[in-house]
Amino acid sequence: MSRAARGLDFARRDVLGGASALAALTMSGCSPRVGSAFTATDTHVLDYPTVQAVIRFGEILSARTDGRLSLKMYAGGQLGNERDTLEITTFGGLDFNRINLAPLNSIEPLTKVAALPFLFESTAHMRRSLDGEIGEEILASLEPHGLIGLCFYDSGSRSFYNTRGPIRTPADMRGLKLRVPGSDLYVAMVQSLGADAVPMPLDEVYQSLAQGVIDGAENNWPSFESGKHFEVARYYSLTNHLLAPEVFVMSKISWDKLTASDQALVRDAARQSVPYMRELWDRQVAKSKAIVMGSGVEVNEVDPAPFAAAMTGMWDSFIDDARQRNLVERIQALRGGESE
Ligand code: GTR
């Protein structure tokens, strides 16, 4: 049994409550949920914006149902890494999960679109694209895989950091061993720059940097800071190559047990947590930057052009069906507006 499954008493979950619920079940196929709290998990620590946003989501649910629906958050990766908890979520062992797009790349081709390097030109462009129909299509594509995509959260932009020296051009990356999340797309992205890609869960990165198993990794300011990677990797080079968003999902098995009105409530509460998350995110980026810079990490600006030239070359190997191409074109058509 997995670490996560051992950590929870799933048998305790009480989805149906008493005779009236049973009657409702007979009539509608499902009943109002009563009893134990929903479970949710996130790889990040408790004060991270994604975790706080999901907690806020739970508070909204609870307030709107007088406590009938509530949520218990297992933060800090205590139930396992994203890949493992995602699997448990698809089997209904966890109700909610906040993950990055990366672990979904091998499951659903449409998620690769929003994880393409240099596709989004700014956070504003990413939001503009994913807040509307394009985002809805990507979220809906998760359903056949046992997941209900509820909303996207911000994740800023990812850049490379390492223990060796500043990266200014792709040539500086040659031979570096760089950790990536477990996604073929990320592997190809790093290889296209001449570095060696080492897929690894996030919670192993600090130790691997400290022991020299890897030379570096890539991530946004808050993850670089909150995972303490900056204490070991003292060079952060602002390639800003990726603005792949975070995703908040629900297990379809848990979803199917809800009444239609509870489902609508869940969707609405998730949507309401997005502006809150963005507010926390902007504050967190500023705070993480200050901590990292204050610690003396050498941060350098980078001309993105040669990185973009190398990395967009691998798009074609991942965008190979008409639906993906259509989404890429629609996202590109939204370029050029106000940026952030
Ligand atoms: C973070 C993201 C996590 C995880 C992590 C990683 O930015 O919030 O969900 O995907 O990156 O690199 O594994």
Could you provide a short overview of the structure?
The chain is α/β, with parallel strands linked by helices and 340 residues long. It has helices at residues 3-7, 18-28, 49-64, 82-90, 110-113, 123-130, 133-140, 184-191, 205-210, 221-226, 252-256, 260-294, 305-312, 315-318, 322-333; strands spanning 38-42, 71-74, 96-100, 147-153, 158-162, 177-180, 196-199, 216-219, 235-242, 246-251, 298-301. The strands form 3 sheets. A 5-stranded mixed β-sheet has the order 2-1-3-10-4, sandwiched between helices. The chain has a 4-stranded mixed β-sheet with strand order 8-5-9-11.
Task: Describe how the helices and strands are arranged.
Layout: H1 3-7, H2 18-28, E1 38-42, H3 49-64, E2 71-74, H4 82-90, E3 96-100, H5 110-113, H6 123-130, H7 133-140, E4 147-153, E5 158-162, E6 177-180, H8 184-191, E7 196-199, H9 205-210, E8 216-219, H10 221-226, E9 235-242, E10 246-251, H11 252-256, H12 260-294, E11 298-301, H13 305-312, H14 315-318, H15 322-333
Parallel strand pairs: 1-2, 1-3, 6-7, 9-11
Antiparallel strand pairs: 3-10, 4-10, 5-8, 5-9
Helix pairs in contact: 3-12
